[in-house]
Amino acid sequence: MNEGRTGVWFVGARGSVATTATVGIAALAEGLAEPVGLTTAGPAFEVVELPGFADLVVGGHDVDDTPLEERARRLAAGGMLPSRLVEAVAPRLHEADAALRPLTREPEGSQHDEIERRAADIRDFRDAHGLARVVVVDVASTEPLPADRPEFHDRAALDVALADPSARVLPSSTLSALAAVAGARAPYACFTPSLSLGIPALADLASASGVPVAGQDGKTGETLLRTVLAPMFTARGMRVRSWAGANLLGGGDGATLADPEAVRSKLVSKNRGLHDLLGDDVVAPLHIDNVPDLGDLKTAWDHVHAEGFLDTHITLQTTWSAYDSTLAAPLVIDLVRLLSLADAAGIAGPVPELGYFFKDPWGSDEHSFARQADELVSWALRTALRRSAAPVA
What we know:
Elements: E1 6-11, H1 16-29, E2 56-62, H2 68-77, H3 83-88, H4 90-98, E3 100-102, H5 111-129, E4 133-138, H6 155-163, H7 172-183, E5 188-190, H8 205-209, E6 212-215, H9 222-235, E7 239-249, H10 251-257, H11 260-278, E8 286-290, E9 297-307, E10 313-323, H12 324-344, E11 349-350, H13 369-389
Parallel strand pairs: 1-2, 1-4, 2-3, 4-5, 5-6, 6-11, 7-8
Antiparallel strand pairs: 7-9, 9-10
Helix pairs in contact: 1-2, 1-12, 5-7, 9-11, 12-13
Organism: Agromyces tropicus
Protein name: Inositol-3-phosphate synthase
Family: Belongs to the myo-inositol 1-phosphate synthase family.
């Protein structure tokens, strides 16, 4: 049962993923595109009541001020989006633009003040559009890991540090997560490998705030393929000795990940599932190279060496090439719809079954894609039944 419109609040709203998702939502709402790549549009979800595409309203935060329509045209010029589609949904892009709010790289006052400013923007967006709820999705650029990673174990001590006008103890991703979950009580997904809620003092924040959350680091291409293939080797008793990977990409992501500190967290999350599925003794060198002329087209190469029967050698090589943002955008839309369902059903805290969408899933140690897919469908059906049985307020 759809109880009104759902807000989609993108952190990094003018970036490639958010812009592609915004164009996609508009095109789906207008009937100009088919929901290709959306899990929630598949037959397994036909009986699950989810927000309609026309009922999704986009807003968000960004440090950039490039108009969405211009950003979308640049993506179209680079081959990622059809120009005709961008022009057709231009009025909806203008509407979304009006709902975007700026972030400053060096905000004034304490970090507590900044959290409240971001939370107020989300609440104002919800109220101005008469939304049933707002789902916040962080799709901002990957942050470098903090040089002195915050290790606050006590929420009271963290609050004291946040109130100090001279202290900058948390990165922007964590400020946005706190604004969403604690300040606006909005369902939240972290689609990046940035720190976000990864502090001991925040471990129970979502449960205490009564909202569902999901993360971390969207599983779109190379890692998706790995989590499909690795269980095959294990099931057939073939021992994987090494799994090497190389990623070539340009665009904004390539430039961001050229920073050795920014790429560090990305490499950790990309390899975690592989080691969990195959063991820590698997040799797994992995690197990401910035190749500016590729633009937003990403290519990933993998070389797998395994041991077979009677000490024979098995080699598998894969090449995956795609516009990463067009892989990520439908997953983001899926997450918004499913977190809206979870919130309507009264679910709070990390939703393990949404690990299907992530490299490093919160609340789950399951990385096998086939198992994750089964768990997601079962969860969605159970949650839909729970929601339909809940009393109407």
